[in-house]
Design a protein that fits this description.
This protein is an alpha+beta fold. Helices cover 28% and strands 25% of the residues. The protein contains 13 helices and 22 strands. The strands form 4 sheets. Strands 5, 6, 7, 8, 9, 10, 11, 12 and 15 form a 9-stranded mixed β-sheet that branches. Strands 18-20-21-22-19 form a 5-stranded mixed β-sheet. Helix 5 packs across helix 6 (111-119) and helix 10 (195-215) packs across helix 11. The longest helix has 21 residues, at 195-215.
Length: 420
């Protein structure tokens, strides 16, 4: 069975023709803004040709020929995260309450985690990926965005299921799939597609969803999504799951003229590029029977320790702070919340992550010439009248990293991997 025949098994032929035609066109480009760092007004003034997304708050479309945002210092310093608009919808539509413990099961490279963390600072996210290498990319993205409410880990789902039964209020399962919604982004995905791959992915997706059900609290919600257009990976997974798990019901997702609803599972939605400005996604939310007991809400304005968090922990000369009350000892952790810095001979060297978490209010402002030198990794000379110590530096009220001030010398601590 080829791709077109697979689609025609559940979609009208005319719609399939339109969908396949749209998949030959250029992909869309979009991003979500980090409003902890920059306002919508300032971003739109800096980049007047971006187009605001009318559906998703703080999301924008852009022309890559006009703004190559992936190569800009704004991207490297976490002012926005580049992700497909269709992919944003999973987190955008997820109902979230203060104090929720959220698991992102297959999280790398981190878009859905990042969108949720930006959406609500008062939640705790366990962001997991089986691949250690991909988890490092996820961790780097969390660092650039300056997020403090994410624990990044790399564990098997079997390990999570053993130790975290009925633990999470919300779970995101963006399941590994055959990737037909990625054809415009990556031509290799199209050449790699075959029906056997669909069936293999379907088997894995069903198993993952069963495991998610075991880790969800009564009254909690699972958001199941794929970037596949195949019925076997989308509606069929949910219908089979509901037949096995009578304690679950679907949640009807909002109506929108750009959402496609299949007749067999009308509460869920398909995002197709012939009717939606994005690459594609299938999304279904599942609610478990019972009443969800609220967790203690995090008060981000309350000062617990000197950094304002409930917990701090030194791990291999790294100092982390976090608010997550869960038992984390069973996790293979890569980033345990906010990295304050690294100890070197008992001196705490503040981190790039911490610089991007802090406000630029008390930073050392750099001018146009100084920022070029700083991003290049050069030492700066500047009269500051500051005591010897570590201070964040900023440009246009955007924190970049730290310097070590000694007199009028500013030793550069910008990460070597980002210097240019």
């Amino acid at each position: 069975m080829n791709f077109k025949e697979n689609l025609e098994e559940y979609l009208p032929k005319e719609f399939v023709d339109s969908l396949i035609d749209s998949m030959q066109k250029d992909r869309t480009n979009s991003l979500v803004l980090n409003t902890n760092k920059i306002s919508n007004e300032k971003f739109e003034k800096l980049f007047p040709q971006v187009i605001k997304n009318s559906l998703i708050k703080n999301a924008y479309f852009y022309d890559k020929n006009v703004y190559d945002f992936g190569k800009s210092f704004y991207f490297n310093n976490g002012l926005f995260y580049i992700m497909d608009t269709a992919s944003m919808l999973t987190s955008f539509l997820m109902p979230i309450n203060d104090g929720d413990n959220v698991l992102d099961m297959c999280a790398a490279p981190g878009g859905k985690t990042i969108f949720l963390a930006l959406k609500n600072r008062n939640i705790n996210i366990i962001s997991n990926d089986l691949s250690y290498e991909r988890s490092l990319i996820l961790s780097s993205n969390i660092e650039k965005m300056g997020l403090d409410n994410v624990i990044v880990c790399s564990n098997t789902i079997n390990t999570l299921e053993i130790y975290y039964k009925t633990t999470f209020d919300k779970i995101i399962l963006d399941a590994p799939c055959s990737g037909s919604a990625m054809f415009r982004k990556n031509s290799e995905m199209e050449s790699d597609w075959n029906y056997n791959k669909v069936l293999k992915c379907s088997y894995e997706q069903s198993s993952l969803l069963d495991q998610a059900a075991n880790m969800l609290k009564p009254g909690g919600i699972i958001s199941y999504s794929t970037c596949s257009f195949s019925y076997e990976e989308d509606e069929k997974i949910i219908i089979d799951f509901l037949n096995k798990h009578k304690e679950f019901k679907t949640i009807k997702l909002p109506d929108n003229k750009s959402f496609y609803r299949g007749k067999n599972l009308p509460d869920s939605i398909h995002i197709f590029p012939n009717i939606f400005e994005g690459e594609g996604q299938f999304i279904c939310q599942l609610k478990k029977d019972g009443v969800l007991e609220a967790n203690n809400k995090i008060n981000v304005t309350k000062k617990f320790n000197e950094y304002g968090f409930k917990y701090q922990e030194r791990i291999n000369d790294k100092l982390y702070v976090f608010n997550n009350d869960l038992n984390l000892k069973h996790l293979t952790i890569i980033r345990k919340g906010l990295l304050i810095g690294d100890y070197k001979k008992d001196i705490l060297i503040p981190s790039f992550h911490y610089a991007h978490y802090l406000s630029s209010k008390d930073s050392i402002a750099l001018n146009d010439d100084e920022i070029k030198k700083y991003l290049h990794g050069e030492e700066l000379t500047k009269e500051t009248n500051l005591k010897t110590g570590f201070y964040p530096v900023s440009y246009q009220s955007i924190n970049l990293g730290f310097v070590h001030v000694v007199g009028n010398k500013l030793k550069n601590l910008y990460p070597k991997g980002l210097r240019h």
